[in-house]
UniProtKB/TrEMBL annotation:
<feature type="domain" description="Glycosyl transferase family 51">
    <location>
        <begin position="65"/>
        <end position="242"/>
    </location>
</feature>
<keyword id="KW-0808">Transferase</keyword>
<dbReference type="Pfam" id="PF00905">
    <property type="entry name" value="Transpeptidase"/>
</dbReference>
<feature type="compositionally biased region" description="Low complexity">
    <location>
        <begin position="672"/>
        <end position="685"/>
    </location>
</feature>
<protein>
    <submittedName>
        <fullName>Transglycosylase domain-containing protein</fullName>
        <ecNumber>2.4.-.-</ecNumber>
    </submittedName>
</protein>
<keyword id="KW-0645">Protease</keyword>
<keyword id="KW-0121">Carboxypeptidase</keyword>
<dbReference type="InterPro" id="IPR050396">
    <property type="entry name" value="Glycosyltr_51/Transpeptidase"/>
</dbReference>
<dbReference type="InterPro" id="IPR001264">
    <property type="entry name" value="Glyco_trans_51"/>
</dbReference>
<dbReference type="InterPro" id="IPR001460">
    <property type="entry name" value="PCN-bd_Tpept"/>
</dbReference>
<keyword id="KW-0511">Multifunctional enzyme</keyword>
<dbReference type="InterPro" id="IPR036950">
    <property type="entry name" value="PBP_transglycosylase"/>
</dbReference>
<feature type="region of interest" description="Disordered">
    <location>
        <begin position="636"/>
        <end position="744"/>
    </location>
</feature>
<dbReference type="GO" id="GO:0016757">
    <property type="term" value="F:glycosyltransferase activity"/>
</dbReference>
<dbReference type="InterPro" id="IPR023346">
    <property type="entry name" value="Lysozyme-like_dom_sf"/>
</dbReference>
<dbReference type="Pfam" id="PF00912">
    <property type="entry name" value="Transgly"/>
</dbReference>
<keyword id="KW-0378">Hydrolase</keyword>
Amino acid sequence: MGRPDKKAKKRGIRRLFTWRKLLGTFLLLCLVGAGGLYTVYLLVPVPTANAEATMQSNIYTYSNGKILARTGEINREIVGLDKIPLPVQRAFVAAENKTFYKDNGVDLKGTTRAAWNTLTGKGKQGGSTITQQYVKNFYLSQDQTATRKLKEMIIAVKVDQEREKSEILAGYINTSYYGRSSYGIQAAARAYYGVDASRLTTAQGAYLASLLQAPNQYDWTSASATGRKLVEERWNYVLDNMVEMDWLPAAERAGLKFPVPRAPKPLPGMEGQTGYIVEAANQELMRQGVSEEDIKAGGWTITLNVDEQKQKDLVAAVDKQLEDKIDRKGDKKAATVQAGATSVDPRTGGVVAMYGGVGATEHWMSNATRRDYQPASTFKPIVLASAVDNGSTTQDGRKIGLGTVYDGTSKRKVVGSPIPFSPENEDDRSYGPVTVQKATNSSINSVYAQMIVDVGFDRTKKTALALGMKDGQDFGESPAMSLGTMGASTLDMAGVYATLDNHGKKVVPALVKSARHHDRQVDVVKQTGEQVISRKAADTVTKAMTGVVRNGSGARAAGDYEAAGKTGTSENNRSAWFVGYTPELVTAVALFGEDTSGRIAEQVTLTDSIEPGRANGGRFPALIWGEYTERALNGGSDAEFDLETGYSGGYDEPTRTASPTPSDEPTEEPTRATTTPPAPTTTAPTAPPTATTPPPTPTRETTTAPEPTEEPTREPTNTATIQPPDIELPGGDGSTPDRTRQPR
């Protein structure tokens, strides 16, 4: 029996798959496909205008079902193409579809590229012509489905055959969504520049054309630094295309400057806090995948986690402790004060109350969600959390805990850092050797600057992001990070502290409880979840921050409830914070200095804006926090923290060494580093106490309740008082062993 003839087998395969057969099969498939497409072409009619032309309302309700707001009135006015300047018309073509006047309504190459990018995970990308986008806006829906895309292409070809290019361009410009609840170029011209479309300049038209790619992200007044960079690049791209197509002289192009739009004005019915809450809810839905166009098209019933009574309590607290004490109309300095706050239920993650500012019709930018101000020393608890979670040690090998002793000397140069840093404590006050608990109570910058070096910048940032802070260009890894030099919102910080309150299990603050449309429902992101830091780390930080409220810089927040919190005052006093929590409620309160009198808002100092002196986190933010918390808890609460810190016993504060004449204020002002610091102490104080040191028998002295220690040093002479120093009795947290609640 011979071997099989392999060549004969190959010849058999070749006979079966000849090039003629393959070509014939391919041509047959093409004919079948073409026939199928032609059949679909014949069967798909050009429909009537979609429901967006008769827009539906969105309904936003409180958690109890009561309606907070109803939106959806169409903000659109159709204008003829003859009313739109020719350079503005051409800007839209240059931005979206340079072949518009030549194509047949469909760009197969662009559509194929967009489909491939979507399938390969590069994100949903455009590829549609102006005709296709007009068809989508006017005849179809915003659904991202293959069926809708196929219909869009077929109808676009038919529309291109049946209508003039000028009619299609006019329809596109008049039906597109530009952000700020504006449909069509007339509404957009008024919303962004306060003029009719007929008066738009070439530069302004190029900006409006640029907006269409990402209306929300590219709105200059609310865009992030990245968003502003991208829209400016897009604007330049549009103008360069106009030059390339001989629609704009190069000399004129060179003289054009970016046309910064005016601040937005909310629609009627969005007064007070309503506009802030509705916009924040919309932003949350967009982060979950619902497009802005889809939201604005209406038909949604959005149930919020906002508690109607707590919302009223928060507004009342800000009014009583801030607004009633300043004259915004008569005092230019007072007019620069902006308040923001977010309150979260740590058990569910629901945002139960939010304060965005004096009113959305007067100050559109929400102070609750903006991230352009520093959280300052409210970041310090994150450094401590990272230290405990990572089992970090000091430069000389001592494990970091509440009883660990650091050098609190002002302008002390940090040891072990590749980046030199020697931060000044507030009023340049030096404390000498202090425990971590004391450093937390009095917010001592020099201690936390050294601690973040001991922990590691990368580890600390990793902990911060895990707890809920957001990354950004200003979130650099350096010793200054310990003083909260990045940007953060009250919503961010409420989420971070809610996770600490929840024993290290992640809490994601959420405004939206549910969102239902007539044909679908949005799956809300899970608001509580994984253990992001150890319970020991979270509870240790909570224990430390109870000392801040009991007899530290946050004493003004104390009330008939157990509370933990942290004050913060940023560089140049541009922001002042108090973020704190009880076992049942987490609230972040912040004041920002902002001058809105010019065309572009500028950050300014809060000093001398509310009363003479610095506006520290331990004053008005803490007072607002305390007022709100008392109201929200119906006067108080018996709930107590259930802490598992792993510490037993207490510790003493070390004997204080000589220092400059002490001020009666704690350290808050960060970031100023001296170039000629005093010689650093690189070794630990002799025989430092640790958490295992047996405490002496506490001797309770009769004292009055300690007053807050975060007062500005420049007080009015007729109200100046001398406040008692911090009272440090033996106890694990530096407070009295048996806490007596302080009624408000």
